[in-house]
Amino acid sequence: METLAIVGGGIAGLSSAYFLLQQAQARKRPLRLYVLEASDRWGGVIRTVREDGFVVEGGPDSVLAFKPAGVELWKALGLASEIVGTVPGRRAFIYFQGRLHPLPEGLTLMIPARLGPLFRTSLLSPWGKLRAAWNLVMRTRTPPGQDVSVADFVMRHLGREVFEHIVEPLFAGIYAGDARQLSLRATYPQLLDLEQTYGSLLRGLLHRVRQQRAAAQRRGRPASAFVTLRGGLARMVEALVAHLQGRASLHLRSQVRALQPRKSGWRLHLADGSTLDADGVVLALPAHAAARVVETFDPELAGLLAGIPYASSVIVNVALKREDVTHPLEGSGFVVPRVEGRPLLACSWTSSKFPHRAPQGFVLLRCFFGRAGADDVVNWPEEDILALTRRELRETMGIATAPVRTWVFRWRPALPQYPVGHLERVEAIFSRAGQWPNLSLVGNAYRGVGIPDVIAGARRMAKAFDAHQGADNT
Ligand SMILES: Cc1cc2nc3c(=O)[nH]c(=O)nc-3n(C[C@H](O)[C@H](O)[C@H](O)COP(=O)(O)OP(=O)(O)OC[C@H]3O[C@@H](n4cnc5c(N)ncnc54)[C@H](O)[C@@H]3O)c2cc1C
């Protein structure tokens, strides 16, 4: 019987186990599967706390609905009835020059894509609006195959103001990254495709908006952009673990220190001194952890993996009495541009987006700290983080009262950054790893940081493993 070991029990590792077992079952091929997780809980950065009627997300809190892999897996796990969307029509805001401005309507792929709202927004000066509209008559194309930073691309098409006041904070809110360095090809390649087709980003986006409108009319109801699970995203982890129990051998507190290639297969060396032999290994780890595990037998691969930069972040969830918050909280929350010079990256009005997450009479807010280059906040003492949170909420939203509950989650280096050239590095990593038989890499370090991207990557890996009985790393 073939033996496979998956190292890492985050969503990448657990969904890899799910898909590998599914393939083996379909082929009627017996498979002995181990999942080894270093910490004492499953789920990696997915962490939900349920306390006194609050559903508090410590890491991710929802997934993009238009990327189907997440929702498909939830349905396959029997979670369809637990899926909830954001309240449709909730607007997002940008904190700029001392107040909250609504995001222009019709944002597509994180870029303002409708002329009316673009001209009406209070986020741009008259010159900034003219500069953006000028793109309609521009013809500019990035040379095919070339990578470019999000900042250079957006500024070339729409000008500095659109980038600094609107696009930068939206990207930072997702990647906790510096959009001046983020690779467009690795994050939003669709924008490059539009540019290639139309020669102008705005013309391409206007066309896309028309298509989306037609699709929405066919659907007949507004779709939620983000979806989650009623009991929190940990429900997906719990359902996966329940599904795997009895089908795979699941081990917490099992840190893998090193991998050793053998004549046939692999030997895994664990931190407690024990070893495990397997025919194949899937490394479902952050790139820096994968680098340490492969270092002894392939320093070049380790170097490539270690070269993927990571950011740390802190999420502070704050519960307040509704009567203590004068702000109407009619929206989904706000992001803060880097040019504002504030430590707060974003604040989600969680209980406005997902009302079930706070009990009656309370609101739940979620503050995101850890701007690229200034993420040392992750090492601050808890009381300092809380004092910072209260100051930021007071100065941005006028909330002066003390919270009734707070939950602080620190994520040390957990969010991979995709700098310009990232996809070339990923290709080099996969081609190097592909030289070793039955070694695969999955996770958020490579081709997408969102949960649906990670699940889709695990599904691809399982298919490739099945097809080749070996490392594919497509
Ligand atoms: C704060 C935050 C907010 C986010 N928000 C969203 C969101 O709203 N929506 C969204 O779609 N995505 C979001 N993401 C991204 C998404 O959550 C992650 O990309 C995804 O969950 C990563 O899964 P993973 O399995 O690749 O990695 P991880 O979750 O990091 O799991 C890796 C696992 O490997 C284990 N491990 C490490 N070293 C070893 C070893 N040597 N041996 C054994 N085990 C080891 C770790 O303990 C960990 O459990 C967010 C991420 C963060 C950090």
Architecture overview:
This protein has 474 residues and is of the alpha+beta class. It folds into three domains: 2-44 and 235-308 and 418-468, FAD/NAD(P)-binding domain; 104-219, protoporphyrinogen ix oxidase, domain 3 (Orthogonal Bundle); 310-416, Protoporphyrinogen oxidase, mitochondrial, domain 2 (Polyamine Oxidase, Chain A, domain 2), CATH 3.90.660. The protein is 37% helix and 23% strand. It has helices spanning 11-26, 68-76, 115-120, 126-133, 150-158, 160-175, 184-187, 189-198, 201-219, 234-244, 287-294, 299-306, 350-353, 382-397, 422-433, 451-468, and strands spanning 2-7, 31-36, 48-51, 54-57, 63-64, 83-85, 92-96, 99-102, 107-108, 111-112, 226-229, 249-251, 256-261, 266-270, 275-278, 280-283, 310-321, 333-335, 344-348, 362-369, 405-416, 439-441. Strands 8-7-18-19-20-17-21 form a seven-stranded mixed sheet. The longest helix has 19 residues, at 201-219. The chain is globular. The model is unreliable at 470-474 (pLDDT under 50). Bound molecules: flavin-adenine dinucleotide. Flavin-adenine dinucleotide (FAD) is lined by residues 7-13, 36-39, 44-46, 59-63, 255-256, 284-286, 289, 293, 313, 315, 411, 414-415, 443-444, 449-451, 454. Flavin-adenine dinucleotide is lined by residues 7-13, 36-39, 44-46, 59-63, 255-256, 284-286, 289, 293, 313, 315, 411, 414-415, 443-444, 449-451, 454.
